[in-house]
Amino acid sequence: MNAAAPGRTSAQANExxxxxxxxxxLDEIWLRGRRTLVNALEAAELWPATPDFMAFRKAQKARGxxxxxxxxxxxxxxxxxxxxxxxxxxxxxxxxxKSSTPMALAFGHGLGDALQRAAGAQVDxxxxxxCGLFNFGISIFxxxxxxxxxxxxxxxxxxxxxxxxxxxxxxxxxxxLNAAALESEAPEIRLLLQTIAAVYQRLYRLxxxxxxxxxxxxxxxxxxxxxxxxRSSRAxxxxxxxxxxxxxxxxxxxxxxxSAICALPDPSGFNTALADNLATEMGTIFWLTDDLVxxxxxxxxxxxxxxxxxxxxxxxxxxxxxxxALIDSDHIVAAAASIRDSLLCVRAALxxxxxxxxxxxxxxxxxxxxxxxx
Length: 374
Known about the structure:
Layout lengths: L9 H9 L3 H22 L6 H26 L18 H25 L6 H23 L4 H7 L2 H9 L4 H10 L3 H21 L5 H20 L7 H24 L8 H30 L4 H5 L8 H9 L3 H23 L1 H4 L2 H13 L1
Helix pairs in contact: 2-12, 2-14, 2-15, 3-4, 4-5, 4-11, 5-9, 5-11, 7-10, 8-9, 10-11, 11-12, 12-15, 12-17
Protein name: Polyprenyl synthetase family protein
């Protein structure tokens, strides 16, 4: 909490903060969030050294570009591949789309690779590629909500909870999504539908159908993640606890899904308990990191954010009140501590499994946290 000045009560200090211009409040939160997290990670020796971080980021970008130009391009109709480098894709968020595409692919691929190693499985490149495609699909699903919400109704007419039920029961095929993509005039929707179709084609092959318990568990997680994403746009009508639950599920479930993808071919040879424990900690890390990084934009747009949702008397339309309550609370410090603690839990779990199980997961997570901040 902010300390009150000598001779002033906490209530008086809070009243002074509430008189700040909104621009000052935004600047203070932006700086405080980053400074608090960096200090917490540096003190725990979790902050990557700059030379190592720069080398990691360069390698990730190169890996992601290879996946984009090969794996992702092959999943798209020939006429739609050009949209990957188009200057008009996702409108004003085009720069975000083009810069995040290789990183999303590389991050998902790296998580799949590292989780397989950590869980004692032999690394299967097909699984890692599927995780990369899935993570890319999640990233553009988020981007569609953020940048072009007017397209959500059309997307939902092609892909909804009923579609998921049919896909998970085997009553519908991924080819139906490809056919639906061709009906849309919006390249963003075509890209997302074709990506989802490519992911499901791979999931069916990895699981040898949709009847096994491993696929059914994965299907349940996918349905929950879709519901959380769709509910997040209506979270202003939820209670404070419901807003936090939706916020956490929206960010954390994709990591459990990646763990479940890794277990599809041979659950008996995969340490599911360890992988799910790691995935849960990763969910916490990136849920809170994302909310720290996006708190400014979320406060302006009224989007769901766990830090703002925890603020006293939260109201989506009261930007000044929400920001003041956040500054005068310890929520930023608590979020930074939770991110640090989850990174330490991942490190401890990997060390128990031995260095041959750890792979690059520890480094992957720490470097991606730094990337999100920068």
